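Support request from a user on the community tier.

User writes: "When I paste my structure tokens into the form, the page sometimes reloads and wipes my input. The last time it worked, I copied everything first. Here is what I submitted, just in case something in the input itself triggers the reload:"
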């Protein structure tokens, strides 16, 4: 078997995941989701931490089984250092540290946002350096120039809500189940995206803003339901399509501007919101119109997963970028 063989742990939010990679090839990628948060309409940090404790050992065992490797085959253990929920990060990092210490194997601390970007290298086609990446998730929206696996520069980011948060919060206003983003995406396929015009956040440079959209949707729905209590139900598909259209316009406007200004023709999409079908289609169309190469990971590597952590750890292993047992999880870790 090719080396290095790396076990990776992902526990930044509410998905518990473990993956095994050998020589840059993914052998297994196991994810356990947490259903406990559905009744609260959002992730409850304390409950997430407890669920990670329940899921982690079975998930690691299954990842090793599927990869057909034993603990003694491992060359390193990687974990998500941040950003994320502190309690969730602590569960994953303490497990990884203990596991690595017991096996006398090196430890690799991975930046969650870097991992989302490097998910593009798990399977072909793979972008060539340098490229521009739009990372969109529930907690982050960033434009990143990727010069190498370990050299990245954030040139734009949200000043308030992230794109994923805008999807989930507006979906909640529409009464859609949690998590709202996928439900909104499904309904949007059935609706007219230009039926209800909502404001596109205008920001200088390459930054993003989505709080204004959320507020506009809230007041619009309040006004319309006061006149017709059934307004949302009668217009759900068009409302979802219009909201999604506005979020996508906001994202692609800045993405396009950054690509043109920096002369980059290889564009990548990463993060949980990269699973949104409307965004994937719009970016693909943009690439066709402008002659840009577009890269979007497989669905399983868009949302939080340990496969992307393993891929990042592979690059760090090659560069000798190891951590020590004193490495602490950092919920506000920056991409540098």
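"...and here is what came back when it finally went through:"
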């Amino acid at each position: 078997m090719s080396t290095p063989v790396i076990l990776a742990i992902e526990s930044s939010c509410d998905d518990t995941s473990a993956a095994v990679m050998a020589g840059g090839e993914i052998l297994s990628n196991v994810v356990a989701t947490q259903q406990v948060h559905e009744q609260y309409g959002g992730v409850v940090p304390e409950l997430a931490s407890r669920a990670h404790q329940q899921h982690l050992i079975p998930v690691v065992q299954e990842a090793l089984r599927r990869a057909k490797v034993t603990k003694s085959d491992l060359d390193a253990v990687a974990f998500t250092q941040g950003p994320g929920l502190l309690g969730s990060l602590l569960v994953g990092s303490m497990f990884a540290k203990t596991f690595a210490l017991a096996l006398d194997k090196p430890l690799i601390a991975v930046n969650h946002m870097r991992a989302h970007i490097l998910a593009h290298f798990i399977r072909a086609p793979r972008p060539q350096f340098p490229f521009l990446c739009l990372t969109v998730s529930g907690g982050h929206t960033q434009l990143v120039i990727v010069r190498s696996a370990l050299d990245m520069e954030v040139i734009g980011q949200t000043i308030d809500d992230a794109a994923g948060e805008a999807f989930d919060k507006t979906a909640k206003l529409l009464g859609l189940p949690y998590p709202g983003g996928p439900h909104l995406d499904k309904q949007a396929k059935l609706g007219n995206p230009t039926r209800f015009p909502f404001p596109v956040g205008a920001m200088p440079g390459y930054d993003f803003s989505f709080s204004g959209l959320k507020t506009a949707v809230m007041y619009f729905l309040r006004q319309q339901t006061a006149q017709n209590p059934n307004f949302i139900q009668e217009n759900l598909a068009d409302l979802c399509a219009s909201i999604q259209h506005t979020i996508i316009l906001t994202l692609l406007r800045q993405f396009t501007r950054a690509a043109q200004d920096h002369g980059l023709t290889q564009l990548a999409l990463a993060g949980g919101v990269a699973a949104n079908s409307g965004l994937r289609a719009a970016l693909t169309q943009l690439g066709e119109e402008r002659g840009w190469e577009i890269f979007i990971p497989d669905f399983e590597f868009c949302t939080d997963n340990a496969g992307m952590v393993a891929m990042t750890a592979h690059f760090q292993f090659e560069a000798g970028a190891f951590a020590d047992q004193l490495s602490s999880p950092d919920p506000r870790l920056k991409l540098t």
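Agent notes: The reload is a front-end session timeout and is unrelated to the input. DSSP finds ten helices and ten strands in the chain. The beta strands are 5-10, 15-22, 25-33, 76-82, 107-111, 131-136, 141-148, 151-157, 266-270, 293-295. Escalated to web team.
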